[in-house]
Amino acid sequence: MDNEFVGKTKDPAARLFAQFHAPQTKRMKKSIISEIKKKNARIRVLFATSALRLGVNAPHVEHIIHVTPPSNIESYVQETGRAERTGIPSRATLY
Question: How does pLDDT run across 29-72, given as a tens digit for each residue?
Fold first, then answer.
């Protein structure tokens, strides 16, 4: 796929999508979190487990999709609350 990166580089930091889950190294997680905090982040889609649950302020997230529901309503509210922090209309989808 030639269109999975920003620009002509094949550097993993320039990917348009990323995965965030517990087994990743701290360096990988830090890189992803740093990128998704930016207003014009290169990462457009982030596949994440509950490892990305608390303590991350990524104010420009506009759509949260849950493939399965969180274990309780408090977790759902916390996780979907990541969207719309800048006042931009946002969505949450639960499958």
Answer: 888 888 888 888 888 888 988 777 666 778 888 888 999 888 89
- Under 8 Å CB-to-CB from 67, ≥6 apart: which residues? 95
Give yes or no for a contact between 56 and 47, defined as CB atoms under 8 angstroms apart. Answer: no
Architecture, CATH, for domain 12-94:
3-Layer(aba) Sandwich (3.40)
Q: Report the SS3 class of residue 44.
A: coil
Residue 12 has pLDDT above 80, yes or no: no
Quote the CA–CA distance of 14 and 53 in Å, as a whole number. Answer: 24
Element (H, E) at 73: helix 73-80
